[in-house]
Amino acid sequence: MLLTLNGIHKSFAEKPVLEDVSLSLKQGEITTLIGPNGAGKSTLAKIILGLIKPDSGTRLSNADLNIGYMPQKISIDPTLPISTCRFLQLANTSHQACHEALESVGIRHLTKTPIQRLSGGELQRALLARAILRNPNLLVLDEPVQGVDVNGQNALYKMINSLAKTLNCGVLMVSHDLHLVMSATDQVICLNRHICCEGHPEKVTQDPAFINIFGQTTAIYSHHHDHDHNLHGEVLDDHNHQHGESCNHD
Amino acid sequence: MTDFLLYAFLAGIGVASVAGPLGCFVVWRRMAYFGDTLAHSALLGVSLGVILDVNLNITVAAIPLIMAMGLVFLEQRGFLSLDTLLGILSHSALALGLILISLLPDVRVDLISLLFGDLLAVTQSDLWVIYGVACAVMLLLGLLWQQLINITVDPELAAVEGTNVTLVSTALMLITALVIALAMKVVGVLLITALLIIPAATARRLSHTPEQMAVVASVIAMIAVVMGLAMSWYIDTPAGPSVVISAGVLFSLSLGYRRLAS
Q: Which residue, among A111, A187, A177, has the nearest Cα to A148 in the 3D structure?
């Protein structure tokens, strides 16, 4: 067990945001936190990160808990001259480690590029690289695929999955988009101020509380793409069939 | 060279050396208006110092610091935007400072030199203060540099990775208050922010790392001091404004440099 929350309550300006939330995160397990806008997902993530204190309830963490955090977005003033590599070095000063992290998220070629010049997808990868730099045993990812196109999202989820396996760490993923996340997750927690339902993806999608919030139509996403794309949208053909010209896209 | 010119030169160089790196943080963190507010409250520091008969150096640094703490407190309460809060505090402090000075029985304070600086009146003991404080500021900046950059990039990421964000940002406020107290002697209350921002903005176009930008900003501030003093010496212009306008000219030149380079 990496971290346990027990009976967490939190209000902002007398308005309750979280009510009696309890959960636990385990090593090697992917937990997905879903819920509509304003459900308190980010607040809960910040309590898990230790950035804000709950009004009541306890947060118990393992003594060697080491969190890698990938924020929802980041805005760095354009007047700050900082390369992607230097951005990573703020978390871990080793040059070698930074290069390896950039390599493992596939943007080694952007080492010297100013961080403000990265595209949405590249920036998400850079943030992911920074999150894994300190060999965390818990990764907290707040809406990790924001601003990334659908195929890029899929690639990013795959990457997160394989990185989590390599690091053998626990993962908490915050998302409002359940189609893509669910197929790779061990535990889904559906939050709407309180925990509406939780459990395995298949179980949760059939829960009346879940259907009430997200509707009946939602099904677990399974991807039928039989090939991958590189960062430029070109097909990486490792299958034995031909692609039409129209298969290349951004 | 006459003594007063040498003192002015040394004082200007000392202040410019710390104005460079601090100015970079003011630019990166968009604290220009914040700097203005602290600078205006320094005038209040002067009048309170005279009224209470304490060393002016102390009140001039202490009042902006108290103001900074108050701002943080009010901002966290969140009933007004920071922008509006700064507007209220900045101008109230300036007005109160001016009123208090005008109430002083005999005119022991030269208002114009407070507002626009009096670089040519720097004494030897001023120099000791300037270099002592400048060394302390450099030491603090050096010790906290990596953490300061880290909280500037993203305070939440920095906090998760173990940086004490409250401590580091409080230290930055302390440094800002100290530098403002120093810079007041060179360019005066109304032009302090200019001395912080213009060299940093000029350096931006010439640098690729935060450290480069800090050093280049210092050098540009020093060049502006020398140019301003020369201007003041040869065509008898007020020293503080001359330093600022020199920095402005250097900034315009840097715009041209970028165009040439590309």
A: A177
Mutation site, B77, B160, B164, interface A, largest A CB count within 10 A: B160
User: Which of B26, B154, B168, B202 is best to mutate for the A interface (most A CBs within 10 A)?
Assistant: B154
Would an 8 Å CB–CB cutoff place A76 in contact with chain B? Answer: yes
Within 8 A by CB and 6+ apart from A136, the residues are A66, A67, A68, A167, A169
Q: Could you give the CA distance from residue B101 to residue B111 in angstroms, rounded to a whole number?
A: 8
Distance from CA of A208 to the nearest CA of B (A): 36
Q: Quick check: is B235 in a domain?
A: no
| Residue B65 located in a structural domain | yes
Assess if residue B234 is contained within a domain.
no
* Contact at CB, A77 and B157, closer than 8 angstroms: no
Question: What is the residue-level pLDDT of chain A in tens, covering all 250 positions?
Answer: 889 999 999 998 888 999 999 999 988 888 999 888 888 898 999 999 999 999 999 999 888 899 999 998 888 999 999 999 999 999 877 888 899 999 988 899 999 999 999 988 899 999 999 999 988 999 999 988 887 887 788 888 888 888 888 888 999 999 876 666 666 788 888 888 888 888 777 777 777 777 777 765 444 444 344 455 555 555 555 444 444 444 444 4
B38 is in which domain, residue-wise? 3-189
Instruction: Count how many pairs of residues, chain A against chain B, have C-beta atoms within 8 Å.
Output: 64
Question: Cβ separation of A90 and B149 shorter than 8 Å?
Answer: yes
Tokens standing for residue A11: 């209000």
CATH code of residue B39: 1.10.3470.10
Residue B112 counted as domain residue: yes
